[in-house]
Amino acid sequence: MARETIPFSPRTGLPVVAVVIGWSQAERDEFKRIGLALPDATDAAPTDALVDTGAHRSFIPEDYVERLGLAPIGEGIVQQSLGGAIVVPFYAARIEIITRSGLTWQRHGLAPTIQVGVIPSNHGAARVLPMPIVGRDVLATCVFRYDGPARTLEFDSAPKRPRRKPKA
Predict the structure, then answer these.
(1) CA 98 to CA 101: how far, in whole Å?
(2) Could you read off the pLDDT of 30-70 as tens digits, one per residue?
(3) By CB distance 3.0 to 4.6 Å, which of 28, 63, 70, 98 could disulfide with 91?
(4) How many other CB atoms are there within 10 angstroms of residue 152's CB atom?
(5) 53 backbone dihedrals φ, ψ, rounded to 5°
(6) Cα(26)–Cα(32) distance, integer angstroms
(7) Cα–Cα distance for residue pair 146/10, rounded to 1 Å
(8) pLDDT digits (tens, 9 = 90+) for 89-128
């Protein structure tokens, strides 16, 4: 694992990583299946995101939905940390954690198709921290070591699992 010192948000104390947010793999595959070229805006440029190991789901700000042209796939109730709940729309998206190694980007966790919640622009979190939140749905796709006191994250790609032989 390559050790990388990462910045922490002074407001939350959470680490900040670079991510690429884009169309879900299912949408990309459907475009290829019917022979269409993908539009240019299928991925946003790398951006900072908060790592929240306590969040079950990842969230993106509303402007990413508009910029990428994502279509809603439903809505759900999301519990907030201080109690209460809000209803948010869900979108199929792809989130990939990346780190810079010299002049190249290293790819780590990739959630090819997940349901991401949207942080409404009028929500307090969007006003205070207008950036994506990477939850355990994405973190589960990579191997990492989080050392809070040292303020470091070490990433490695998720190990390939051996395929099981079909039972006869």
Answers:
(1) 10
(2) 888 888 777 666 676 788 888 888 888 888 888 888 888 88
(3) 70
(4) 14
(5) -70, -10
(6) 10
(7) 17
(8) 888 888 888 876 655 666 666 666 778 888 766 555 555 5
Q: What pTM was computed for the model?
A: 0.74
Residue with tokens 């948000």: 9
Please state the rounded mean pLDDT for residues 158-163.
51
Q: Where are the beta strands (DSSP E) in the chain?
A: 2-5, 16-22, 47-51, 59-61, 72-79, 85-101, 104-119, 133-134, 142-147, 152-157
Instruction: Decide: 133 and 59 in contact? Cβ < 8 Å.
Output: yes
Work out the angle at residue 92's Cα, subtended by the Cα atoms of residues 88 and 93, and round it to the nearest 5 degrees: 110
Which one-letter amino acid corresponds to residue 40? D
The one-letter amino acid at 114: I
More confident residue, 98 or 73: 73
Tell me the residue length of the chain. 168
Which of 62, 162, 75 lies closest to 121 in space, CA to CA?
62
Q: Is 62 left (phi over 0), alpha (psi -120 to 50) or beta?
A: alpha
Q: Which amino acid is at 44?
A: A
Closest CA to 107 of 63, 138, 148, 131: 138
